[in-house]
Amino acid sequence: MTPGTTPQVYIDNVYKEFGSGDTANLILRGVTVTVPKSTVCVLLGPSGSGKSTLLRCVNELETITAGAIYLDGELLGYRTDAQGRLHRLTDRQIAAQRSHTGMVFQRFNLFGHLTALQNVMLAPTTVSNVPRATARTQALDLLARVGLADRADFYPSQLSGGQQQRVAIARALAMDPKLMLFDEPTSALDPELVGEVLNVMRELANSGMTMMIVTHEIGFAREVADQIVFLDGGVVVESGPPEILDRPTAPRFQAFLSSVR
């Protein structure tokens, strides 16, 4: 980290292993990434490289095996006692930390029995105890922001995939997160619906939202990213400004870009 600055996200030498013993599978192998505030970090890499696992670790959906992750200077998942020893936080404390991070998945994960408006209102009213009238006003504003003001009373089954994903983005924004995580948010969409979701993400990037994005949309990455991180085999192979997309130095990164273009 740069002295005197606190990045929005600091991932410090993180390892993640699934299973144990002979069946252990080491997915992340000492990953270090720094994401300054109000910047966009795009994670690229082949399937199985650890991109989605890394996002899930940042959002505390997975427990890291070693290393540390900080959000806005706060250690995630643990507290340090007076003797410097680490203690795992309770589920309630972890949930409180997670509320500062919004995550959008490949699948929209909307509640089918709730309207778009009700989906967006749900977390503020149930987690943060925001009054329903306030939550409704905020949710309507967010739906308008993602271009769905006229779909507030529609159920997910009445919406296209792109519209559902935009509702999911509005729902994540409803908790006023410090950080937005996107795990291949367009991979489940028909090609003609991808653009409407990317447009919303462009608007978020332009507004100064700190974002970490896993995507295979190389053109979009070049346009919005402040930082590109290429992962392969659970390690950071190459990272830098978006210009590295045109001048990759690592042979593995060169091969990857050739395969997706």
Note the main attributes of this structure.
about 260 residues, alpha/beta, 6-stranded mixed sheet, 4-stranded antiparallel sheet, 8 helices, 12 strands, about 35% helix, about 25% strand
What can you tell me about this protein's structure?
The protein has helices at residues 51-58, 91-98, 116-126, 132-145, 161-173, 191-206, 218-224, 251-260; strands spanning 9-18, 25-35, 40-44, 66-71, 74-75, 78-80, 86-88, 101-104, 179-183, 210-214, 227-232, 235-240. It has 261 residues and is of the alpha/beta class. The strands form three sheets. It has a six-stranded mixed sheet with strand order 8-9-10-3-11-12, with helices on both faces. The chain has a four-stranded antiparallel sheet with strand order 2-1-4-5, covered by helices on one side. It is globular and about 50 Å long. The model has no long low-confidence stretch (mean pLDDT 94).
Number of strands: 12
- Strand-pairing-aware structural class: alpha/beta
Shape verdict: globular
What is the alpha-carbon Rg in Å?
19 Å
Strand order of the largest sheet: 8-9-10-3-11-12
Residues in helices, as a percent range: 25-40%
Let me know the average pLDDT. 94
First-residue to last-residue Cα separation: 33 Å
Strand content: 25-35%
Assembly annotation: single chain
Low-pLDDT stretches: none
Order of helices and strands: EEEHEEEEHEHHHEHEHEEH
How many helices does DSSP assign?
A: 8
